[in-house]
Amino acid sequence: MTTRQVSFDPLNFGEDHSAALKARNSEMRRLRKEGVQVRGWTLTGQLRQYASFGVPDGRVRNIYMLNIGV
């Protein structure tokens, strides 16, 4: 079986950490109802060094992850 990872970055949710966490958890519940093996975990303290080419960012956040098909 192939394992796939999906990330839920709060910066893609307007810096709303709770929205990213809720999205990860709802996707995990949906997949489990379909009978798919899934594991949720958190990648803590991730630094976003650059917002774009040559534009420093420096924000630190947690990234919420899913392993699908474990």
What does this molecule look like?
The chain has one helix and three strands. With 70 residues, the protein is an alpha+beta fold. It has one domain. It has a three-stranded antiparallel sheet. Strand 2 and strand 3 form a beta hairpin. The protein starts with a strand and ends with a strand. The mean pLDDT is 90.
- Overall outline: elongated
How many structural domains? 1
Low-confidence stretches: none
The SSE order reads EHEE
Spatial arrangement of strands, main beta sheet: 1-3-2
As a whole number of angstroms, the C-alpha radius of gyration is 14 Å
Mean pLDDT: 90
Oligomeric form: single chain
List the total number of helices: 1
Total E-strand runs? 3
Tell me the span between the first and last alpha carbons: 8 Å
Q: How helical, in percent, are the residues?
A: 10-25%
Taken as a percent bin, the fraction of beta residues is: over 45%
Largest sheet: 3 strands, antiparallel
Structural class: alpha+beta
Q: What's a concise summary of this model?
A:
The chain is α+β, with helices and mostly antiparallel strands and 70 residues long. The protein has one helix spanning 17-33, and strands spanning 4-8, 38-52, 55-68.
SSE blueprint:
Layout: E1 4-8, H1 17-33, E2 38-52, E3 55-68
Antiparallel strand pairs: 1-3, 2-3
Features:
three-stranded antiparallel β-sheet, alpha+beta, 70 residues, 24% helix
